[in-house]
Amino acid sequence: MKIEALAQTIFDDILNHGGEVYIVGGTVRDEMMGYCDQHDVDVEVYHLSYNQLCTILQQYGHVNTFGQSFAIVQLDTLPHYDFALPRQEKKTGHKHQDFETFIDPDLPLEKAILRRDLTINALMYDYQHKKIIDLSGGLEDLHRHIIRCVDEKRFIEDPLRVLRVARFIAKLQFEVEPQTKALCRQMVEQHMLDNLSKERVYQEYSQILMTDMPSLGFQFLKDIGALPPYLQALTTTNQRLDFHPEGDVFTHTMLVIDVASHVKQKTDQPLWFMWSCLLHDIGKPLVTTEQGHAPLHNEAGVEVFQTVDFITSKKARQYIQTMIMYHMHLMNMSRHHARDISYLRLLKKIDGKVSMNDLIYISCCDKLGRGKVAQSQYDEFWIFIQDKQQRLGNQALPAIIDGHDLIENGFQNKQMFKKILEEAYDLQLQGYRKEKILRSLRKYEQG
């Protein structure tokens, strides 16, 4: 394995003091798969005490410790390396964090790997002997593209592992071994996932969405009954087959997020963009008719989005809500050959919330996430939108009338200012000059 020079120096020092060094977890897995992803390197140090490890590391930089309960140590000069002592864990409650930790520097490797979730994550790299140690069949599972738990009894102690399995399915595009899948379903049926914090659920969902095939992760959650209600409802909401030959809304959504995964880095907010694509049609179950029509499903989607409570960032919520509201506007404008003023009005509605660039991309992903797309319609959309962009730009026009103008012209009912300014701006888009706009607003209360 490729190891930084400073890390090698530290590892050699640990060996000279009687310790053993193993790189564990995802770093080893990705190395075996030829991935070049940069992430934290987990290092386990055996046969040294916590204090001995800290004493060695202090020679090479500032040591940050996370307490002897976890015995995890970081070094400021090696920010991507986590040093830890081998430990065992005992479940003490229902939550993901409810474990009591026991440090054992001399713990046998066979017992140490039992706390690992999956066999492909239980591989160890023996630094001294420069070899892989595989005590759970992880290499064979890697070769066969299989996701399998290490120890069934330990696996079910942590409900977060269900979402981690979904993430690795999406990231690696592997199959889940039947017994492991059955354990995940059992954990869902026993409502163990209800004990997960909103923050951890958001983190795992976000990581699924940022993979190349996010649909695989959500399809797994569907198969084991773990989808949240607003996504589960999509699975039984049918659409008009002439518009959506792929079938129900969930199938459509999965196609959309897979298309979106290939363009997300071209957007201004890749993660928020992926969340928007996942949630863009969550209003359809509320409004879909027996014939498969879904009138005003965008507005219904904004309503349903209020129940998605584990997205807490105000800016993220504003972005996603705006994308849900306007995700189909551009395609509709193209289809109906909308006038310039419709485009300018849309620029104003999304101003400061979502870029036109991102709205274009979700519109395209929504269009392409269907069982069949007419190339001519897609080409016509791009001709339409490029013409609007070239002539009208991508930013809302600055308003020529503001609150100061209203006050100077005698408007006193400040509670009406927002409505008045909205009308003033629309008159501006229609081509009216400032003086004529002010005359048109005389119907409102004046002093």
Q: What is shown here, in short?
A:
The chain has 447 residues and is an alpha+beta fold. The protein has 4 domains: 5-149, Beta Polymerase, domain 2 (2-Layer Sandwich), CATH 3.30.460.10; 159-226, Orthogonal Bundle (Hydrophobic Seed Protein); 228-392, Orthogonal Bundle (Hypothetical protein af1432), CATH 1.10.3210; 403-443, no CATH class. 49% of the residues lie in helices and 10% in strands.
Description:
It is a single chain. With 447 residues, the protein is α+β, with helices and mostly antiparallel strands. It has four domains: 5-149, Beta Polymerase, domain 2, CATH 3.30.460; 159-226, Hydrophobic Seed Protein (Orthogonal Bundle), CATH 1.10.110; 228-392, Hypothetical protein af1432; 403-443, no CATH class. It has 23 helices and eleven strands. The strands form three sheets. A seven-stranded mixed sheet has the order 3-4-5-2-1-8-9. The protein has a two-stranded antiparallel ribbon with strand order 6-7. A two-stranded parallel sheet has the order 10-11. Strand 4 (72-75) and strand 5 (78-84) form a beta hairpin. This is HD domain-containing protein. Residues 21-148 form the Poly A polymerase head domain. Its cofactor is Mg(2+).
> What strand line-up does the widest sheet have?
3-4-5-2-1-8-9
- Binned strand content: 5-15%
Task: Enter the CATH topology name of the largest domain.
Answer: Hypothetical protein af1432
CATH class group of the largest domain: Mainly Alpha
Low-pLDDT residue intervals, each spanning 5 or more residues:
none
SS summary, helix count: 23
Q: How helix-rich are the residues, as a percent range?
A: 40-55%
Structural class by helix and strand composition: alpha+beta
Mean pLDDT over the residues: 92
Number of strands: 11
Pfam families: HD, PolyA_pol, PolyA_pol_RNAbd
Organism: Allocoprobacillus halotolerans
Protein name: HD domain-containing protein
Family: Belongs to the tRNA nucleotidyltransferase/poly(A) polymerase family.
